[in-house]
Design goal:
By secondary structure, the chain is of the alpha/beta class. 51% of the residues lie in helices and 12% in strands. The chain has 16 helices and 8 strands. It has helices at 11-22, 34-43, 65-69, 84-91, 116-123, 138-141, 156-166, 179-201, 206-227, 231-234, 237-248, 253-262, 267-274, 279-294, 299-310, 314-322; strands at 3-7, 26-30, 60-62, 74-77, 100-103, 128-133, 147-152, 171-176. The protein has an 8-stranded mixed sheet with strand order 3-2-1-4-5-6-7-8, sandwiched between helices. Strand 4 (74-77), helix 4 (84-91) and strand 5 form a beta-alpha-beta unit. The N and C termini lie far apart (65 Å).
Amino acid sequence: MAKIGIIGAGSWGIALSVLLHNNGHSITIWSALEKEIEMLNREHEQKEKLPGVKLSEEMCFTTSLAQAMEGKDILVLAVPSSFTRSTAHLMKEYAAVNQIIVNVAKGIEETTLMTLSQVIEDEIPQADVAVLSGPSHAEEVGRGIPTTIVVGAGTKKTAEYIQNVFMSDVFRVYTSPDVLGIELGAALKNVVALAAGIADGLGYGDNTKAALITRGIAEIARLGIAMGGKFETFCGLSGIGDLIVTCASMHSRNRRAGILIGKGKTMEEAMDEVNMVVEGVFSAKAAMGLAKKYDVELPIIEQVNEVLFHKKNAAEAVKDLMLRDKKIELIGDAEWNE
């Protein structure tokens, strides 16, 4: 049995706490919000963000980071990406040397263009930081629906330890050394999912969705490889796998926000109506910063930025994508037959 601290009591943190408790581990859940902890202690359910998923009486709920962190074998950092740095800063005081911290949020820090594991390492240099990602809606993981995911870590030992802790008959875990590629796929797919939602809101069909998914993963891989990620990662669970589920499912807050924008809502109105953190909005600007830094074209993500931040008409953005200069699809040194 492992002692695990879940840092963040949103839908994903709660879903993982249920999974890990069912695997036989000791769970302590932390939130900075006293009302949230009071609700969890009283109801044993995250009624606002993951209703219907009951939490065991054996779980501990606390607003004390010391209680949530000290003596724990693993810490699961499950706060929204925009709060990753501030939360990691608070955690530094209580983190042991070589403390395993598994980041499960998805995003890129806009001001520094760091991935979230890089942010955590910047704030807690003594930690052993890993990342868990893949096609995994909290609503389904919390209900025990079979899910497959990947863990990335700096060493094989850490990756396999986390794999063993999380693995179950409903939660299959693969390992990978490509932490950077996993995180880039996880963050950028949210931006493409906004585009997929916008297309849905405009009333477009399956052809459009397939085009956005296919060309979207091409953009993500192009940038990821330029930054040092592995091509195979973008063909895997945290790449095309996560992109498919996020573009296709109504569990996806990014897709839902995109639908509202496609129907004429502003970004702010869409985020208010979804009433959850829409990570793709925070990653969109950062993605363009990375595109400029690495001199990579990201036409879909560029048009999402235009719609989100420059009030461009969504239908006009799709038209501009369709009318871009003609391209060849095949990448590499292949030549035409004469």
